[in-house]
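2024-03-11 09:14:02 DEBUG pipeline.ingest accepted 1 chain
2024-03-11 09:14:02 DEBUG pipeline.ingest length=254
2024-03-11 09:14:03 DEBUG pipeline.predict start
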Amino acid sequence: MARTCSFLSSPTLAGVLLAMLALIAGAGPAAEPPPAFAATAAGDDEADEARRKTEVLAGSRWRRAMHELNEWLATQPVYSPERVARIKRELATRVAGMTSYELEYLLDGLDEKLLILESPAAADAREWLGRYLAVMADERRAAVVANAPDLLEMSAAELTATLAEIEQQREKVERAARDARKSRRAFGAFVADARRSESAEREQLGRVRHGTTAFSPYRTQPVGDPPFPDSFDSPTVVGVGPWTSFVDHSFAAF
């Protein structure tokens, strides 16, 4: 009996029993992990995020989007070379500060906008806009280019609305050009008619001068017969009467 009591009074055994009782009762808050363990977990999360971001940037989808964006920026007629360089710098700065999830969201938006920009309607609008800006006055063109929205800041819906506005402007300009051509044709026809009338009048006056027709100042058109066709001239008679001399000339009858 003395041996048993001596064993139970051992400090090691007492500590084990107290620990078992604490586990059974579930008493006390959970112990926090050691600082070294928490730092290791945070480091693993950062490493996973960096690896995931690298995978997005190195992926074929991102590289294809960047290639298409560069091709569009190289052929568009609105942004100046300085504006294009600024857009690329701003995009690089934004990408550097984004998480992998933000990059994927940005990539989704780029894919959607590039599909719109590569559509046949957008290609036609880009070609027409280039010709329209080329013939525009320098000050007007500078104002239009300065107010052009930034592609990266636009949503797909805003981009679609902008293309619709360009198409409306195109129809307006082409309608004005058609009206101008119609007016020029009408004026040309008027000038041609006036020249034909003038030529006909000159021809008629020429015939009058050459005696082929007669002209009366009291009529609007030349006449076929000379004035007083039924008249005849009589010789002039000069004589001396009882009181004075006289001159007699007969102008025929009317």
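2024-03-11 09:14:41 DEBUG pipeline.report The beta strands are 237-240, 245-248.
2024-03-11 09:14:41 DEBUG pipeline.predict end
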